[in-house]
Design a protein that fits this description.
The complex is a heterodimer of chains A (212) and B (228).
Chain A lengths: L1 H20 L3 H18 L6 H21 L3 H5 L2 H7 L5 H29 L5 H27 L6 H22 L4 H26 L2
Chain B lengths: L1 H6 L1 H23 L11 H29 L2 H33 L8 H21 L5 H32 L13 H42 L1
Helix pairs in contact in B: 2-7, 3-4, 3-6, 3-7, 4-5, 4-6, 4-7, 5-6
Classes of the chains: A mainly alpha (212), B mainly alpha (228).
Chain lengths: 212, 228
């Protein structure tokens, strides 16, 4: 129970910071909308709806990257991470709390992006939304751990996409499959498997990322 | 003899690798029969052996990474890095040989439905990022931990990517070809085993050479620090 209280406190801290400073979420919203507009001009006029659905996944992954690159900014700039590591709680709680807040930002960005996508390109259905929801969990889980890694390096924001994109390829395969095929069950199951597997690995290994 | 072996392990390993590679080349060109695909099938013995060796290197790197996190083994960090370095070299060779084979087999340099090749591209990108990570963190226990965690991600990424690529392939390309099939002739299988063993020994030799060099490097730096 203490663990859940720690996680809750950490996630609340991030959400409250965002509510007061508003430096990540507006950027994500604006980014995802401008990406969708760019896609309109990227696609030839007679391209199929499937191409637009595929590109939506590009927008989601890059919007997530934008949010993730800021995920540990406050911790790094103010030296908060040392305090969190020294706090008498399990270190993995830092990861769970941060992943939850990242997930919240991502879902909020998509709440705006999906209706916009439906408006511009049309065709948002149930399996697609389910695929996006499952993919968000995986993106938040893996992305948060990699963001913590990138924050510890000299290259910082530059490194995160390089670390993240190869690991995101299975998410994209599953997500695009769930969006465009007539048999999305297989892909949704695969996304669930990915989420479970990588969440366990991240949960178990986060401690080593923030300690020496 | 046994003391000589102990003192010259690396030289003996290198000699074994040389002998095995010579033997495998001889077997490939003079012993293994030319099958229905013609001469281009010969690259199979190099390509698959190299690919499996790359997997072995990545697995060894993952095992050493686990040792870093689990036992706090300080030597394991360098070993894991060197194993992954060898894995990337063999992985790049897999991409090149696979591409050449695809050109002569199917007429294109790149085949997206060649799922092993796509998998190696993903792994190549992943492990290239491993080096970026490693080179942008100052040396020390922190770097050892970060590299080890990322290397373990690689071990999980391999089966997940295989699954993902299989899933997507059935959707885009309903092509079910088995390249060499289960009914490989005995002589072909023997040749393949020898060439795989040759590649593994070569990788082990290179691994030990690089490891020795890196260790001397570290030792030299320590001595220089001590003299300062």
């Amino acid at each position: 129970m203490m663990y859940l209280a720690d996680v809750g406190a950490l996630a609340r801290k991030d959400l409250r910071l965002e509510l007061r400073a508003r430096d990540t979420l507006p950027a994500m919203l604006l980014f995802v909308l401008s990406t969708l507009v760019v896609f309109h001009f990227v696609l030839p006029g007679d391209s199929s709806e499937l191409a637009a659905k595929g590109l939506l996944w590009v927008a989601i992954v890059f919007t997530a990257l934008l949010g993730l690159s800021r995920a540990f900014a406050a911790e790094r700039e103010q030296g908060v991470i040392d305090g969190l590591v020294l706090a008498p709680s399990d270190r993995s709680a830092i990861w769970v709390g941060k992943a939850l807040s990242v997930l919240a930002f991502l879902v909020l960005a998509e709440v705006v992006a999906l209706p916009a996508f439906a408006l511009f390109f049309g065709g948002v259905d149930g399996p697609m939304v389910a695929g996006i929801a499952l993919a968000d969990v995986g993106i938040a889980a893996v992305g948060t751990l990699l963001a913590a890694m990138a924050a510890a390096s000299r290259a910082r924001e530059l490194l995160l996409p390089l670390l993240f994109l190869p690991l995101a390829i299975p998410i994209i395969v599953g997500g695009v499959g769930a969006s465009v095929t007539s048999d999305p069950g297989r892909y949704l199951g695969f996304l669930g498997l990915y989420d479970a597997l990588f969440a366990i690995i991240c949960w178990a290994s986060f401690e080593y990322v923030v300690t020496e | 003899m046994s003391t000589w072996l102990r003192n010259n392990r690396l030289a003996a390993l290198a000699a074994l690798a040389f002998a095995l590679i010579t033997a495998s080349i001889a077997l490939i060109f003079f012993y293994a029969p030319v099958d229905a695909d013609g001469l281009n099938q010969k690259i199979f013995y190099f390509h698959v052996g190299i690919a499996l060796t790359a997997y072995a290197c990545f697995a060894w790197g993952g095992w050493k990474a686990l040792r870093v996190l689990w036992k706090g083994d300080e030597n394991a960090d360098l070993e894991s890095y060197v194993a992954i370095h060898q894995g990337v070299i063999f992985g790049a060779l897999t991409l090149v040989t696979g591409s050449i084979w695809a050109r002569y087999r199917w007429g294109h340099w790149w085949e997206w439905h060649e799922d092993q090749l796509v998998l190696f591209l993903v792994l190549f990108l992943f492990y290239a990022a491993y080096f970026m990570l490693r080179f942008s963190v100052p040396a020390g226990p922190r770097r050892a931990n970060l590299s080890a965690v990322y290397a373990l991600f690689g071990v999980a990424l391999v089966p997940v990517s295989i699954l993902a690529i299989r899933l997507s392939e059935r959707f885009i390309h309903p092509v079910a070809f088995d390249r060499y099939g289960p009914n490989m002739a005995g002589s072909q299988f023997f040749t393949f085993c020898v060439s795989w063993a040759a590649m593994l020994t070569l990788a082990a030799t290179l691994y030990n050479v690089e490891l020795a060099g890196k260790r001397i490097d570290v030792r030299l730096r320590e001595l220089r620090e001590a003299l300062r």
